[in-house]
Amino acid sequence: MIEHKNTLKRLKTIEGHIRGIQRMVEEDAYCIDVIRQINAVQAALHKVSAQILDAHLHSCVTTAIRGEDPAERERVLEEIVSIFEASTQV
Amino acid sequence: MIEHKNTLKRLKTIEGHIRGIQRMVEEDAYCIDVIRQINAVQAALHKVSAQILDAHLHSCVTTAIRGEDPAERERVLEEIVSIFEASTQV
Amino acid sequence: MIEHKNTLKRLKTIEGHIRGIQRMVEEDAYCIDVIRQINAVQAALHKVSAQILDAHLHSCVTTAIRGEDPAERERVLEEIVSIFEASTQV
Amino acid sequence: MIEHKNTLKRLKTIEGHIRGIQRMVEEDAYCIDVIRQINAVQAALHKVSAQILDAHLHSCVTTAIRGEDPAERERVLEEIVSIFEASTQV
Q: Which of the two ends of chain D, N or C, has the fewest CB atoms closer than 10 A to its terminal CB?
């Protein structure tokens, strides 16, 4: 699937970014620069999550809501709320 | 609506919390304690957002997805993704 | 203190913003618009926290680190880390 | 340095976690489960940032604040605030 290919590509880029940060730590890079690179990885991961959520809403969630099983409808909606709740928490 | 009453009650509590933080600042409270109270308000606001999202998914989003207008379906799903994207961003 | 005045002013603006969101809920505004306003308040609160942290670093933290009490130095540094760990930005 | 070894170990664990998520995507795992694993990685990254910040405060920041260069003191404090402003926790 095209979605999968794009998601995998992003995850491989992120994996490379993490290895780059490991090298920075090994080479004793300035702490603040390392933290900034970690922030960049977190932002990239958040974009991957949003992309997966997008695909999920257009497939499973749409199917469940148009379907006839109220428990399944409830389940998919609750999952969206729980994912949202976990997305920023102090 | 019951949902509205609960949401309003939470927002009034948060308003009172903000006024409490103003008093802390006026009375020269310890900075870290003020920041912790601000964190608590942010967490409470995030819960209100999750509660509103929950109601929205069960009403507008369900109606749109079960409806016959593909553009409207697309619109409500895109909004969910955009809200999620804005929920944590580095 | 000038810092205090500025912080208080921002907190009063935020309090007004919260009241505006209450009116939106009472007037049955569109859910996504309410969530966006809540996001804006969270971002404003994060800026207030950053402003307070800035003042704290220039006063208490600087005094403690230049001081002769190692336990006090340790305490203020640990607080900064704990505030960072708990931190969230919208 | 012991700090470095611990940080590197965590980053290698995170790299393995990212590869695990790639496999989940390849094997068509449930979207919400993938998003939850991404959240776990973001939380782990936030802990690494906090650990690096801790080391930074005890080394560079302490040295700068105890030192005699006001511009350098200002620089390290501003960096802490900017890192805090950009910070996110999952």
A: N
